[in-house]
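Reagents: none. Just compute today. GIY-YIG endonuclease.
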Amino acid sequence: MINLNNIKLKPVVLYSNCLEDKNRIFSDNKGKAAIYRWINKINSKTYVGSSVNLAARFYLYYSLKQLNSQKTAIHNALLKYGHKNFKLEILEYCVEGANPVEREQYFLDILKPEYNICKIANSPLGVKRNKMFSIKLSKTRRGKKIRKSSLNSVSAVRFHTYETKAKMSLRNPGVNVKIFDKLGNLINEFPTIKSTAEYIGVCSKTISRIYETGISYDEFIYKFEIKDLKISVYDNNNKLINILNHKSDTSIAYNIPYTTLSRYIKSGKLYKKRYYFYHVKSNVNKENDSECVPISPD
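Predicted 3D structure written out:
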C-alpha cells in the first residue's frame, strides 16, 4: 500500500499565492495542456484536474459566478478560504495533441486528493447526490408515461434521410467564434460552436445561447462571425449555372447526399460527369460568373 506521506512530487511550476499570481497563471498557461493541483495552505487538502487549455480552465476558477454555480468541493473551498490561501502546482505539461485525462488518472490514483469527489478522471462516477437532488429529479419525472416497448428493449434507433439532415443543418449556420478576456486580449479562435464548447468545457447549447442572446455566462467576451456558406454550381464546361445559399439547399436541389457533396466540394472533382461544386469564395479562377442563370438539375 502506498504511503501518501512519503510521496513528494516536484511540480513543473509552483504558484505559491494564487491571488497575487493570478495574471501570471493566465499568461504562463495560455493554450497549454497539463495536469494541475490546487493545494489548500490551511488544511493541506488538494484537488487534481486536467485541461487541454489551462488558461481557459483557470479563468473559470477565478469567476465568482462560476464558483457560486458549480457547488463542488473545490469551488466551495476556493470561495470559503480565498485564492490567497491556495497554492497551484502544474504537475505535468502534455505534448501537443495528447489527451491529459490518462495522466490525470495516474495522479488521482497516487495522490488521493480530498477535494476530488469523482475518483475517475473525466467521469461523474462516485458523486453522491443529496436528498434534495433526488426530490427535484423525482418531480421532473412525475406524470411522464413510459411506453411498455421501452421497458424491455433499447429505444429504437432513428435514421434520417440526407434531405432531413440537410434541413436540420440550416438551424446551425457556420459560425466562427473568437474568445477574448475582459481586457480585450484574444484567447483563442474556433471554426465552430461545437469546438468552442469543447475548449471551454461546456455543452454546445451554452455557446449557442450566448450567440443568440449576447449574454455570457462567465467572464469571457465572445464574438461570432457568420461564415459565407453559399455554394456555386458549374456544369462540365465550367460555366456557372447556379448559386445556392447553403450546402443543405444544394444537397436537396441536386439530389446529392450531404456528406458526398462536402467531399466533392473539397476535392473539386466533377460529380456524375455533370456538376462541379464550390464554395463561392473559391471561384476566383472560374469564367462566366456574370452569366449565372439558375437551372434545374433535371
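DSSP finds twelve helices and ten strands in the chain.
Action item: order primers for follow-up constructs.
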